[in-house]
Each structure stands twice: as structure tokens, then as C-alpha cells.
Design brief:
Chain A: Belongs to the SCO1/2 family. Chain A: This is Photosynthetic protein synthase I. Chain A: InterPro entries: SCO1/SenC (IPR003782), Thioredoxin-like_sf (IPR036249). The complex is a heterodimer of chains A (202) and B (165). With 202 residues, chain A is an alpha+beta fold. Chain A has a single domain, classed as Glutaredoxin (3-Layer(aba) Sandwich). Chain A has an eight-stranded mixed sheet with strand order 1-10-9-4-5-6-2-3, sandwiched between helices. Chain A has a two-stranded antiparallel sheet with strand order 7-8. The radius of gyration of chain A is 17 Å and the shape is globular. Chain B is mainly beta. In chain B, strands 1, 2, 3, 4, 5, 6, 7, 8, 9, 10 and 11 form an eleven-stranded mixed sheet that branches. In chain B, strand 10 and strand 11 form a beta hairpin. The chains are: A alpha+beta (202), B mainly beta (165). Chains A and B meet through helix 3, helix 4, strand 8 and helix 6 of A and helix 1, strand 3, strand 5, strand 6 and strand 9 of B.
Chain lengths: 202, 165
């Protein structure tokens, strides 16, 4: 309960009351009925992360409070699922119109050894200039992946390696509660519909 | 919701799906293997690898053995699979090309990995690829293909877009 009050105060303090006026933004995390995605409202996961953005700023989940963060794990040398998911995210944002302005797409690299801030910045911006990419040390990366229940591993490929990883997009409400898991098999339109459900709640 | 649907239909309409037919190197005989719609994903500066995609149809049971390209030091064929939303990736030795069946090298399955790129691949660049295919008789042919580079933000065909063959 104390945590709930603190959250309210933080949100009020940030002048984001407008979002709170939407029906049901009461800080509760009751299960939501999504048409396509997986409800993660009551999962003990993805509560926190502390990583660095491509400008060298430390970012945590609360850096994006008031926005609806959508987190995807991947690596820039990923030929298929990562660019597909990010292109889909850009399309979702467009489909949502004005509401899409609250969608904050966050790409977390599982390959911090090769994904330098420079490469990550150029990579993420080509999908949408508002998207951000975060990276951490190998330990940070392992920690954040564990927090989200995300699997990743290096796969040897000739003299180098490629990677396998979980391809779910994780969506938080504007209060920082994890709400929704979107499968890579869903279309942009299906995702957008479920994101509107998250927005109706908070 | 109407705005949403309109946006989707606009997006569908704008996607005219051009199919490029490239005849293989045929030495007097009919082409044994056909490569359609090859493309490479453009890269950002410093990105050391990219993927190439296409559709291949062989008229006899054949195998795609290898691919080479002057733009990359190492070219491999990888296979991606998705189980419970976990994407798994890894190199394969060869890709079977059953007679008459179109095999897609697309972001959903097999693809060509261009690794150790010699430079940035920009949108619109033409990337030469040489595919070595072995037919049922054990004869090999080399198919030379020029694959245009498309924006990395290209949606692959499966999502939201009806693919017509």
C-alpha cells in the first residue's frame, strides 16, 4: 500500500495527472484481458533494469514513467527477428496515431561485446528516431535477461558467432507495471489493439 | 479504430510486391534453378554482418551448397527457428531444394549471412551473390544473382502483408 501511495505521489509530482484521468489508472495490477498477447500483470518479472543508453546516460524503468515502454531484447547482427520486431514496432506506433506518442520502444542488446553505443544508436534510429537502445556489461546483461526471463546464448558460426534469444516484446503501463508480452508472430495491428487495452488501464 | 484500419489498408496498398525473375546461368540447357526476389538488408556504419534473402526453385531435387559474395569475408547459410517465442539461430551445411518446390530464404527460416562485411551496405546498393547448387545427378551450377539492398526497417513479408506467389 505504501508503495502504491509513493507511486501516486511520483506520478502527480511529474505532472502526469492527465494520464491518471483515464478510467482505471489506480495502480492496481489486476489481470487484463488481451485479445492477442499474453497478460503478464501478475508475473514477478521485469520489475527493474539499470542500463546505459547510447548517450552514456544511466536509464532505469522509472526513466520512462508516464510512457508505455515496450522492451525487446536482441542484437544488431540479428538478420531476421530483430529488424522485423523493430520495424513492426515502428508500424505499431504509426497505427496508434496520437496514442503512439506514449509508446517508448526500448531495445536491449544481448550482445554488448559487439554492439557499441555508436552502432546501436545508428541501428535503432533507422527504425524510428524516438526508439532507444540500452546496453550494459556482460553481468548487467545477464542480470536484466534473468529479470525478464529472457533466454540468450552465443552460437558458434565459423570464426565468429550468432545468437539465439527470446523474441517477446514486453510492455509496461505508464506506471511501470509489466502488463503484456507480445509474440513475434503477431501483426502490428494485433499488437496495436492490445496496446490500446494497456492504455485504457493506465 | 477506423483510423487504425485505414492506416493498415494504406500500408497494404502501398506495398506493391515486385517480383524479380532472374534466370540462372544456363549453358544451352533450360535453367535448372530459378532465383526470385533476392534482397539484402542494408546496414549501418560499423555493422559487421547482414542477411540476404530470396526464393529458390529447382526443377530437379537439388541442394544449395554454398554462397559467396565479394562484399563479405565469410558467407554462411543459417537457419532460424522459433519455439515458444525463443528464436534459435545456427549455421547449416546445405539447404535441400526439392524438385519444383519454392524454398524461401526469408527472415522466417533459412537465410544467407554475410559476415565480415568489407563496408557498409547502403539502401539501393546491388550486392552480387554467387550460389552453388548441386542437382540430383551431382552436377553443380553457379547462379549469379544481384540482390538490391533494402532498408533495414523493411517489414518482412509475412506480417500484415499478403504474399502472393
Amino acid at each position: 500500500m505504501n508503495e502504491f501511495l509513493t507511486r501516486r505521489q511520483v506520478v502527480a509530482g511529474m505532472g502526469l495527472l492527465g494520464l491518471g484521468l483515464l478510467a482505471g489508472c489506480d495502480g492496481s495490477t489486476t489481470a487484463l484481458d488481451f485479445k492477442y498477447g499474453k497478460d503478464l500483470s501478475n508475473k514477478i518479472m521485469g520489475r527493474t533494469f539499470k542500463l546505459t543508453d547510447t548517450d552514456g546516460e544511466v536509464r532505469t524503468l522509472s526513466s520512462y514513467r508516464g510512457l508505455m515502454p515496450m522492451v525487446f531484447f536482441g542484437f544488431t547482427q540479428c538478420p531476421a527477428v530483430c529488424p522485423t520486431a523493430l520495424a513492426r514496432a515502428a508500424q505499431i506506433k504509426k497505427l496508434m496515431g496520437e496514442d503512439g506518442k506514449t509508446l517508448q520502444v526500448i531495445f536491449i542488446t544481448v550482445d554488448p561485446e559487439r554492439d557499441t553505443p555508436q552502432i546501436l544508436d545508428a541501428y535503432i534510429k533507422q527504425f524510428d528516431p524516438t526508439f532507444v537502445a540500452l546496453r550494459g556489461s556482460l553481468e548487467d546483461t545477464a542480470h536484466v535477461a534473468k529479470e525478464f526471463g529472457v533466454f540468450y546464448e552465443k552460437v558458434p558460426a565459423g570464426n565468429t558467432y550468432t545468437m539465439s534469444h527470446t523474441a517477446t516484446s514486453f510492455v509496461f503501463d505508464s506506471r511501470g507495471n509489466l502488463r503484456l508480452g507480445l509474440s513475434p508472430s503477431l501483426s502490428a495491428k494485433q499488437c496495436a489493439e492490445d496496446l490500446l487495452t494497456v492504455m485504457e488501464v493506465c | 479504430m477506423n483510423a487504425l484500419l485505414n492506416a493498415v489498408s494504406r500500408s497494404l496498398a502501398s506495398r506493391a510486391c515486385g517480383v524479380v525473375l532472374l534466370a540462372g546461368v544456363s549453358l544451352g540447357a533450360v535453367a535448372q534453378t530459378r532465383v526470385e526476389d533476392p534482397w539484402v538488408r542494408a546496414t549501418v556504419a560499423g555493422q559487421p554482418s547482414s542477411g540476404a534473402f530470396m526464393r529458390i526453385t529447382a526443377d530437379t531435387d537439388s541442394t544449395l551448397l554454398s554462397v559467396t559474395s565479394p562484399v563479405a569475408k565469410d558467407v554462411q547459410i543459417h537457419e532460424m527457428s522459433m519455439t515458444n517465442d525463443v528464436m534459435r539461430m545456427g549455421p547449416v551445411d546445405a539447404v535441400p531444394l526439392p524438385a519444383g518446390k519454392t524454398v524461401a530464404l526469408d527472415p522466417e527460416g533459412y537465410h544467407v549471412m554475410l559476415m565480415g562485411l568489407n563496408g557498409q551496405i547502403k539502401e539501393g546498393d546491388q550486392v552480387p551473390l554467387a550460389l552453388t547448387v548441386k542437382n540430383a545427378k551431382g552436377e553443380t551450377e553457379v547462379l549469379n544473382v544481384s540482390a538490391p539492398a533494402r532498408s533495414a526497417a523493411t517489414m518482412d513479408m509475412q506480417h500484415d502483408h499478403e504474399m502472393t506467389h
